[in-house]
């Protein structure tokens, strides 16, 4: 297993209308010792320029897309962006790609059919465009996608999954591939308000079959998915509490085999404000 890495997954970096604010936040994370910044590639036709803006505005912190949708961007355009970033900032940009969700894809007018086959074809396109496997990572939950991540990328970037899934993913991809799960957290010592914040976030993902089908494999049921998530589900997915309590929840993923945990601090649905205080507290507790 590679060196343990502590990273950040935060929608602020794509949502912020201010390039300077995004770069300022990234610079602080770099100074705090975080290893990489992950954020969504959005659903445009090309990779969002914000990834390159943050690379250009910082010194050494990694930047990764979590994820670029294989239904919205062509392999050749994505590969060109990643190769250009690699030339300018060697080793710092990691392209995360994923199959997204039927409701998102079909909402944009595209038929969501055979996502595994689509991913294989997309990886073929990245190969043809010359993007090496070690510069890309797959959003992977189920066994087949995890095996594909093992065989044709640097590793796997699961999202919205418990530590038990991290252990399963490690077994599936083997010891030599990068395993970098996203883990949402709430830095709030009040369990009532912390769980309310967690449920506000979880309710969005519990409406997506890709996630609920994966959670069923770990013993969760429709009762756990109702009302934004049962206490059992919330506690398994989203570490809450003070910084030390959250750190203990993150440790479960490292113990299960994660090389890197991408921490998403939940900010009550406010994607336009960077939760700097929480990341400062977590840096002291985790890094």
How do you describe this structure in short?
Helices cover 48% and strands 15% of the residues.
Describe this structure in words.
The chain has a single domain (5-286), classed as Luciferase-like domain (TIM Barrel). The protein is built from 14 helices and 11 strands. The strands form 2 sheets. Strands 1, 2, 3, 4, 5, 6, 9, 10 and 11 form a 9-stranded parallel beta sheet that branches. It has helices at 12-15, 19-32, 50-57, 75-88, 102-107, 115-128, 143-152, 163-173, 191-205, 209-216, 222-225, 231-237, 243-255, 276-286, and strands at residues 5-9, 36-39, 62-65, 68-69, 93-98, 136-138, 155-156, 178-179, 182-187, 240-241, 260-265. The protein is of the alpha/beta class and 287 residues long. Helix 8 (163-173) packs parallel to helix 13 (243-255) and helix 13 (243-255) packs across helix 14 (276-286). The two termini are 18 Å apart. The model has no long low-confidence stretch (mean pLDDT 95).
Descriptive tags:
single chain, 287 residues, TIM Barrel, 48% helix
Q: What's the SSE blueprint?
A:
Blueprint: E1 5-9, H1 12-15, H2 19-32, E2 36-39, H3 50-57, E3 62-65, E4 68-69, H4 75-88, E5 93-98, H5 102-107, H6 115-128, E6 136-138, H7 143-152, E7 155-156, H8 163-173, E8 178-179, E9 182-187, H9 191-205, H10 209-216, H11 222-225, H12 231-237, E10 240-241, H13 243-255, E11 260-265, H14 276-286
Parallel strand pairs: 1-2, 1-11, 2-3, 3-5, 4-5, 5-6, 7-8, 9-10, 9-11
């Amino acid at each position: 297993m590679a060196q343990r890495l502590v990273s950040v997954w935060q929608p602020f970096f794509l949502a912020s209308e201010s390039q300077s604010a995004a770069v300022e936040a990234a610079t602080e994370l770099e100074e705090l010792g975080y290893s990489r910044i992950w954020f969504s590639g959005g659903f445009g036709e090309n990779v969002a320029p914000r990834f390159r803006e943050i690379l250009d505005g910082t010194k050494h912190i990694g930047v990764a897309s979590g994820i670029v949708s294989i239904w919205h961007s062509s392999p050749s355009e994505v590969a060109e962006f990643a190769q250009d970033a690699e030339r300018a900032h060697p080793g710092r940009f990691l392209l995360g790609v994923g199959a997204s969700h039927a409701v998102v894809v079909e909402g944009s007018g595209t038929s969501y059919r055979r996502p595994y086959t689509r991913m294989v074809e997309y990886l073929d396109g990245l190969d043809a465009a010359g993007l090496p496997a070690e510069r890309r990572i797959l959003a992977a939950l189920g066994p087949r996608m995890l095996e594909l991540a093992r065989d044709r990328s640097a590793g796997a970037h699961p999202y919205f999954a418990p530590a038990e899934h991290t252990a399963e993913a490690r077994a599936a991809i083997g010891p030599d591939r990068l395993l970098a799960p996203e883990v949402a957290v709430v830095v709030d010592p009040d369990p009532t308000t912390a769980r309310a914040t967690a449920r506000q976030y979880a309710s969005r993902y519990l409406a997506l079959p890709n996630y609920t089908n994966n959670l069923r494999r770990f013993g969760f049921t429709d009762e756990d998915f109702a009302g934004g998530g049962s206490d059992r589900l919330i506690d398994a997915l989203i570490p809450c509490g003070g910084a030390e309590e959250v750190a203990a929840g993150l440790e479960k993923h490292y113990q299960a085999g994660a090389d890197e945990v991408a921490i998403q601090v939940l900010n009550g649905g406010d994607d336009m404000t960077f939760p700097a205080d929480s990341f400062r507290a977590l840096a002291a507790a985790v890094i």
